[in-house]
Specification:
By secondary structure, this protein is α+β, with helices and mostly antiparallel strands. The protein contains 6 helices and 4 strands. It has a single domain, classed as Sufe protein. Chain: A.
């Protein structure tokens, strides 16, 4: 990793933004990486502005490496005020841009953040179809998910969605 990226990651994890569960979230997305066994969950809260649905706030929880935490911290800041359509277009490179280019071994860390975001946006769509809104059950924690046997621990080099 370049010294520049490393410095920025260290700065980001020294004071991570928007870390923790969001009790009043409208949607939540969880992904896991079978490659490294890490997991990341993102919560989104929406509001409306000028007739468009925007992300009011975003938070995350990660049992993952420092790079994933740094990217998620930056991304959840970046997402505030974005419309759902804009958020859907963001890829992992854009989400991790403030940190500089990630080295090849850390690219999947950014993809985890993108995956959790996309999953949360997808869940929101599903919930709209099924209403009522069902964010992650309050008693379900990321740690609880991690301890469950399942597909998240198998396979390789792929970010996968996890069942709620
Ligand atoms: Fe797996 Fe970073 S090493 S998320």
């Amino acid at each position: 990793m370049s010294d520049l990226s490393e410095d920025k990651i260290q700065q980001a994890i020294a004071n991570p933004q928007n870390m923790g569960e969001m009790s009043d979230a409208d949607s939540v997305g969880t992904v896991g990486s079978p490659e490294c066994g890490d997991m990341l969950r993102m919560w989104l809260k929406f509001s409306e502005k000028d007739g468009k649905k925007i992300i009011d706030k975003a938070s995350f929880q990660s049992f993952g490496c420092q790079t994933a935490i740094a990217v998620a911290s930056m991304a959840t800041e970046m997402l505030k005020g974005k419309t759902v359509e804009e958020a859907r277009e963001l890829n992992s490179t854009e989400l991790s841009e403030p940190l500089g280019p990630l080295p090849p071994t850390k690219i999947h860390c950014g993809q985890m953040v993108e995956g959790a975001l996309k999953e949360a946006l997808e869940q929101d769509q599903k919930e709209k179809a099924d209403s009522p809104v069902t964010a992650a059950p309050a008693n379900e924690t990321l740690l609880g998910n991690m301890n469950q046997p399942g597909p998240a621990k198998k396979g390789k080099l792929k970010v996968i969605k996890l069942e709620k």
